[in-house]
Design a protein that fits this description.
The protein has 117 residues and is mainly β. The protein has no helices and six strands. Strands 1, 2, 3, 4, 5 and 6 form a six-stranded antiparallel sheet that branches. A hairpin with a 5-residue loop joins strand 5 and strand 6. It starts with a strand and ends in a 24-residue tail after the last strand.
Length: 117
């Protein structure tokens, strides 16, 4: 599966146990611009570095797998969890927009600009 969006947050890597680490990425997704969604992706183990080059505001495409699993608590109640596990991220554009050149509205045009007014 794939989705495109804007980087909202890149979390630091978490060492959950001695042998397991993970990292979260929050992506602002706006299929309908009136209703933005903030979607959490995770990367685990050796894939945590796929988020290293990302900055807030970057336009990206995330390739991911949808995972789900049940968990049964001590009272026998089963709850289901879903996770979006990223395995590739492609940067489409950088989040920093170019700064426009300043324009002085108070200056008068020169006589040789070729405009009739």
């Amino acid at each position: 599966m794939e989705i495109t969006g804007i980087v909202h947050i890149v979390e630091p890597t978490q060492q959950v146990t001695d042998s397991f680490k993970k990292r979260d990425l929050i992506v602002k997704y706006a299929e309908n611009p009136q209703f933005e969604e903030y979607i959490k992706f995770e990367a685990t183990q050796d894939r945590v570095n796929i988020f290293d080059s990302l900055s807030v505001g970057d336009s990206i495409k995330v390739s991911f797998n949808l995972r789900g699993r049940p968990w049964t608590n001590k009272d026998g109640v089963t709850t289901y969890f879903n996770s979006l596990v990223a395995w590739r991220v492609d940067k489409l554009s950088s989040g920093s927009a170019p700064t426009p050149e300043p324009f002085d509205l108070g200056s008068s045009p020169s006589d040789d600009d070729g405009l009739p007014f």
